[in-house]
């Protein structure tokens, strides 16, 4: 049941100091599209004062998350919940931060739209929505690796693909989430932060 993603091993260390700056000192972190569960247990271990709530729409992924959770035995990782970002209701009513790693490009655009709607519902004013992944950014040269990555994603599923950050930002703003910062990450990835308006 326990799955392993090499990309999760690669990006967790660069993400850690970024999350140290962005996450609250206490509270609940909702992770949307937790995948294998490797990130959930790694970050829960790094932030023992935070409760980590993993979720995924895929039952196979949830089984893997639960296997990692049980093996690690961390008291601050909750049982994974079924959550489809596109759904009009989520199984979580509130969170102090929302983290979503490598979902926006490996899902239909409707999932990004749903993510913004859901984040607006569950986050309190000032709370962060933290995205990680590949983006096309207007005014910046596009890395050849990201163009190749985009082509490979669209070959696997025409509804997938590297998103224009401007379009993601417009969707966030439409739901009351304001852009906070864009952080350059290794391998031409970015951490993109929005905050619930009013904070």
CATH superfamily: Vaccinia Virus protein VP39
**The CATH architecture:** 3-Layer(aba) Sandwich
Poorly predicted regions:
none
User: What is the total number of structural domains?
Assistant: 1
- How many helices does DSSP assign? 6
- Strand proportion, as a percent range, falls in 15-25%
**Largest sheet, spatial ordering of strands:** 3-2-1-4-5-9-8
Distance between the termini: 41 Å
Q: Estimate the mean pLDDT confidence.
A: 95
Helix-strand pattern: HEHEHEEHEEHEHEE
Tell me the CATH topology.
Rossmann fold
Describe the global form: globular
Number of beta strands:
9
Class computed from helices, strands and strand pairing = alpha/beta
The CATH class designation is Alpha Beta
Computed CA radius of gyration, to the nearest angstrom: 16 Å
Task: Report the helical percentage.
Answer: 25-40%
Descriptive report:
This protein has a single domain (6-196), classed as Vaccinia Virus protein VP39 (Rossmann fold), CATH 3.40.50.150. The strands form two sheets. Strands 3-2-1-4-5-9-8 form a seven-stranded mixed sheet, sandwiched between helices. Strands 6-7 form a two-stranded parallel sheet. Helix 4 (109-122) links the parallel strand 4 (97-101) and strand 5 (128-133). The model has no long low-confidence stretch (mean pLDDT 95). The radius of gyration is 16 Å and the shape is globular. With 199 residues, the protein is α/β, with parallel strands linked by helices. The protein contains six helices and nine strands; from the N terminus they run αβαβαββαββαβαββ.
């Amino acid at each position: 049941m326990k799955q392993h993603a090499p990309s999760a091993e690669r990006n967790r260390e660069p993400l850690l100091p970024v999350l140290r700056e962005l996450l609250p000192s206490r509270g609940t972190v909702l992770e949307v599209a937790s995948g294998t569960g490797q990130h959930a247990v790694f970050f829960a271990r790094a932030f023992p004062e935070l409760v980590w709530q993993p979720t995924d729409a895929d039952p196979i992924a949830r089984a893997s998350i639960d296997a990692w959770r049980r093996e690690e035995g961390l008291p601050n990782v909750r049982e994974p919940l079924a959550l489809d970002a596109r759904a009009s209701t989520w199984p979580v009513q509130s969170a102090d931060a929302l983290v979503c790693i490598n979902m926006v490009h490996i899902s239909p655009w409707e999932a990004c739209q749903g993510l913004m709607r859901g984040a607006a519902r569950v986050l309190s004013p000032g709370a962060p929505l933290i995205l990680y992944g590949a983006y096309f950014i207007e005014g910046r040269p596009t890395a050849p690796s990201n163009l190749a990555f985009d082509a490979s994603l669209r070959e696997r599923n025409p509804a997938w693909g590297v998103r224009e950050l401007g379009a993601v930002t417009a969707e966030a703003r439409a739901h009351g989430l304001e852009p906070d910062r864009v952080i350059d990450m290794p391998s031409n990835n970015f951490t993109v932060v929005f905050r619930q308006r009013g904070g």
